[in-house]
Protein: Pyrroline-5-carboxylate reductase
Amino acid sequence: MKIAFIGAGSMAEAIIAGLLKQGICAKEDITVTNKQDQQRLESLKDKYGVTIMENKEAAVKGANVIFLAMKPKDAKDGIQAIKSYVTKEQLIVSVLAGISTDVIQDLFEQELRVIRSMPNTSAAIGLSATAIAKGSLATESDLTLVQSLFSAIGLCTIVEEDQLHAVTGVSGSGPAYIYYIAEAMEKAALAQGLDTEVAKKLVSQTLLGAAHMLQETDKDAEVLRREVTSPGGTTQRGISVLDDWKVSEAFENCIKGATERSREMGEELAEKLREMASN
Ligand SMILES: NC(=O)C1=CN([C@@H]2O[C@H](COP(=O)(O)OP(=O)(O)OC[C@H]3O[C@@H](n4cnc5c(N)ncnc54)[C@H](O)[C@@H]3O)[C@@H](O)[C@H]2O)C=CC1
Ligand SMILES: O=C(O)[C@@H]1CCC=N1
Structure:
């Protein structure tokens, strides 16, 4: 299968790295283009051996699957640059946060099969948490194909398209929340006298172990948390501080805000297109 990436940023790289690492496609089958940063393309070529192209027609020609991997704000220009070279036989896979498959179809101004996805950067090591949804013209077999691609680089579940906003707020942005926690725990460990290397090792292994416990035991997070928390002990004191600082509510608002932002980004582009159509 030949895959073209329009956009060569962190998400494109994470997917490319994952696909190659898992042997889903050969480096010769991947073509990458971006807006103008030739140095970035060269670095992807050096690192992964993929084909890089500035010419947009050449980039999409012959691809079975075209990944849209530019920022949502660049979707209009990015699609404009390739739309006259894309054919109905090619399957479009969007990773753009917030942008609906209808808007993508409108931007191409032709009846294309579009699958919308929300992976995360852990795709780079085969551990993405991805959800996908199909646009009105995509088929069940398109969905199955894209699910098999993303399943090769982590978990991939199928959702209704509207749920992708919440997915973005939870697992698309999610790695950043966990890194935020890691940063905070490392900083706190230093303040308590541990040295940087020890703090980093202990924090990352603690996150890794806890994630495995969540997946490999049949226990809920709450049960696992209680098992760590001895009455009158250290964890109880620590958790009581998190409760005092309303960390749980902070997460509720964090995910709500990110979900709302996904909807807004979709609406901003849809509104722009409506304005252009009415002028
Ligand atoms: N970074 C993340 O963790 C995740 C990002 N996403 C989505 O992935 C998409 C890309 O995000 P990042 O990789 O983080 O962005 P990025 O800023 O790292 O990369 C964007 C890429 O798009 C290219 N680009 C911009 N305008 C273009 C145009 N007109 N034609 C061709 N290429 C163009 C840029 O040159 C750059 O290579 C976004 O839509 C984002 O919503 C989805 C899930 C997770
Ligand atoms: O922050 C963003 O908008 C993108 C979407 C999910 C992760 N990064």
